[in-house]
Amino acid sequence: MSHVRFIGLDVHKKKIAVAIAEEGRDGEVLSYGSIDNTPAALAKLLQKLNKDDTSLHLCYEAGCCGYGIYRQIVNAGHLCDVIAPSLIPRATGDRVKTDRRDAVMLAKLLRAGELTPVWVPDPTHEAMRDLIRSRGAATAQRQVARQQLQSFLLRHGRIYPGIKTWGPVFYRWLGDQKFEMPAHQAVMQDYANAVLDADDRIKERDKQIATLIPQWSMHPLIEALCTMRGVSTIIAASVLASTGDLTRFETPRQLMAYFGLVPSERSSGGTVRRGGITKTGNSEVRRVLTQAAWCYRFPARVPRRRADAFCAGSPAVRQIAWKGQLRLTKRYRELAAKGKPIQVVVTAIARELLAFMWAIGQAVTPTNA
Question: I want to staple 58 with a disulfide (CB 3.0 to 4.6 A). Which of 7, 16, 77, 340 is the partner?
Fold first, then answer.
């Protein structure tokens, strides 16, 4: 009968701390030491530990070192879990943290089955995720640059008289602004250039994403999700880049919780206390879902610019999308009529929007590309 050896890896840029837990509740747990964080050193470790009839089950925390270690271990024929750091059980009074202790803790918890693994994407999916994250970083950069420019103009009493900022009329007004001090003129131009550079970066990322999506296994599902009102290609791609195939979520509530859109709760005995959303998971996905949720403040209809995307879906997908639009527009009006804060309303709509996206994900499967 095969003997299982549980191995915890505390991974850092240059070194990997290793701990081994033998099978069984009373199995020995010891620190193996540390090795270099290189493929050759890891291969040597696996070869040394894989003796006789022993099978290896390794784990390490998800982090900046990516999934290269996972893929090397799996390709070598061993089990490996990449662990969600935020879900690792930790003792409240434990105030000593070292690489050795972390590795031992991982080995013990892996043996006990107390660790929660994350979903590991394939290399193509990971590349698309990085590209979409790059666009999110450019969007955040543009937001900062715009805020800096507006703050500078406000400090000097230059207030734009129009309604819509960041359009052609705004930039013409901005070009007419003259300052007595050359330094002020240079600062304004520098802030404006930062905004324009971020705009160009976002447009370039959008082109690259649009070019690569047809080659991605998630392409059919992205097209199906775009039948939902407010869901653009970028929003659909952002959601799927974080989740992968939506069929791995058994219920829509699991998907809602995955992105931190469910209410927090602290209840005890007969007392029930619920607070704001948990905000776990990807904050950029929550932002784009909230952006999509604003569309449901208008009556249900299929706008002309969305007609092609809506008609491209299968009858089952169109039925889910239309049912979702009827439900969410009605829900928006009901919550707003009750006097709920608008941000609470939009968050609730974003949460329910995920449920309909989950339903579409059960009807459309990605390709095997």
Answer: 7
